Amino acid sequence: MTGARNRIGEQVLLRPVPPEAYLSYTAEMVRTLDEYHQVSAIRAAVFLSEQDCPYEEEFDGNDLCATHFLLKAKGRPVGTLRIRWFADFAKLERIVLLPCQRGRPGLRVLLATAFELVARKGYERMIGQIQARLWPVWSRTFRCRLIDGRAPFWFSDYEYREIEIFIPRHPKALQMLEDPYLIIRPEGAWDEPGVLEASAQRSNSGEQAA
């Protein structure tokens, strides 16, 4: 997804991503331990240091069952978010930028890239738990609404509200009966042949291997 427009993901945003932003920023799914260390460093710098969040509340036991995205500005890690997956919705969490990147278009690159993946996986709605003080910011950033009838709640010393985020239907949303090789490709790289497809060429017989 590097350098390419996230055409479905951008439809969630209230302002388009400037084309030149894709030249300055990359946002990609975290696939390696080193990339996850970069995610942790950014979150520690902001949530633990700036917001004085306790370590065990920030690193809450959900990181290894979530999908993380890492934003880089000219190769430097500057932002991240994570997504967790449920039956008919996804949950947007831990959106964070280093101070030097706030108010710049990198956030829109990060969000559009994440929303693109959510749509491709077939989800059409997300939930977010946002600090109540930031509702004016998020309501101007992407298509969302406060969920009716849901009271504010508190954790880690901040008041939170629940929002619903609307995701357009992706024309290539994945289905259960896709080509089996497509389904076993690396997450998010479904349009590129994977290593397991190449491995199929090793067999020159019709025998099934356990």
TrEMBL record:
<dbReference type="InterPro" id="IPR000182">
    <property type="entry name" value="GNAT_dom"/>
</dbReference>
<protein>
    <recommendedName>
        <fullName>N-acetyltransferase domain-containing protein</fullName>
    </recommendedName>
</protein>
<feature type="domain" description="N-acetyltransferase">
    <location>
        <begin position="28"/>
        <end position="164"/>
    </location>
</feature>
<dbReference type="GO" id="GO:0016747">
    <property type="term" value="F:acyltransferase activity, transferring groups other than amino-acyl groups"/>
</dbReference>
<dbReference type="InterPro" id="IPR016181">
    <property type="entry name" value="Acyl_CoA_acyltransferase"/>
</dbReference>
